[in-house]
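User: Quick sanity check before I run a bigger batch. Here is a single chain. Can you write out its predicted 3D structure?
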Amino acid sequence: MRRFARFFKYAVGFLFFLVMCRWQCRPKEKVIVRFIPVTVKMDTARKFDEESHLPFEEMLETEVTYGVATPTLAPTTVTPTSTEATSTTVSQTLTTFSLDTLFSNTDRTTNAIEAPTKVAGSDDAVSRVHVLILASFRGGSTFIGELFNANKDFFYSYEPGRTLIKCMKKFDQPFSLFRPKHIEMLDNIFRCNFTSDVMQCYASDLARSPLEKRTREVSALDQATLCSGRWPELIPQSKQCAVVQPKVLTDLCSEHKHTVIKSIRLYDLNDVVALVRDPSLNLKVIHIIRDPRGKAPSWMERRLVSKPNYTVTDLTGKVLESMTAYCQNALENLLVGLSMPNWLKDRYKAVRYEDVAMRPYEMTQEIYRFVGLPVPNTVLQWVHNNTNNTAGGPFSTTRNSAEAAMAWKQTLSPDAIQKIEETYPCKEMMAIAGYRPVFDVKELEDSNVTFLDTFPPQYVPNLKYREDQFHPLFWVP
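Assistant: Done. Predicted structure follows.
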């Protein structure tokens, strides 16, 4: 019995040793912070399967979705130990991650991202430039798009996603395919390829559109161009002008040096990662954001009722729902765009609409410097003609741009302004984007107060969710 007890003791000790050895020699693990998403009712165009998002490979291992953080274990990868900003990656563990590192390589004065040095005479230095303007409804993107449309070297496509929705309905395709189809459509336009079924439908829709609508969506399709006799085989009998066909679009796109697309239907910056990473496209993404306090009255004017003033009672559930969706979407895209790895940083630029409206000449130079092109005189003349005028409709670009950007100070009542400032996640989005809140009602009467802080910020503040609605959560551990 004594021998058996001794043998059992040694056996248990040996098994314990094996277990501890296996535990110590296991692959290291790290914590990936995942957030339980907060359900936010979106517009119809926002109803996508969030699980189908394609994340950046080098994106921080924190899903930018809003809610309660729940740690999960995942196999680790080797994390760099260098503390230099140029070698710091965004796939850091929770204990070492700080959002301050996201802005270590950003120019604070111009919001321009440091571009890699190009060798003079290299193919990359003189390659075709493709520009994608990512924005939202009533976000000021039409004005930014015209800065490129006024340049005769650019082939300008205005909201092709709107036509895509009509074409998908025509082919009876489910709306769940909109996102991949939209990216495919953008890629085809950038490559001047209009031969697919969707692109032929796009050309057909342009052919049926009135002249004003057609030239707004593709400015190169003006009457003089189509009636020049350049495509005699496409001119119907008893007509003098060619019908818009894929060949016409291909020829016009190819003869321009560069391409720009404006879209308010591209909701997730992650969706364009394949286009951004494609070296043959030389794609530049310009992300336009706008103060939700300025966006709200503009949205209500177009979607609900036009009034000289709006109070807190006008901020109905539909309005707050739209503002919530916009702020959450803008915040997610900002966090993704500003956290890109160094070799992608020269492909993304966040621009505040208010900065362009308040300083149009300076910001025009800055935007063109970002895409690597000089500003032609025609663009400067367009800026002069369209930023010092009080005329213009809701979609017009002719107005006093500075007054238009700050019109919310008189249009919204103080209680309505406070309601928007306290709405989740607009409070967090405004903190990141440099839109400071109103501290005193008298500030609304001062024309010199713009409520614009430095952008991007010198640091990212802790984003604590309101305890009455969400569990406490800090972005910076």
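The first strand starts at residue 29 and ends at 37.

User: Great, the batch can go ahead then.
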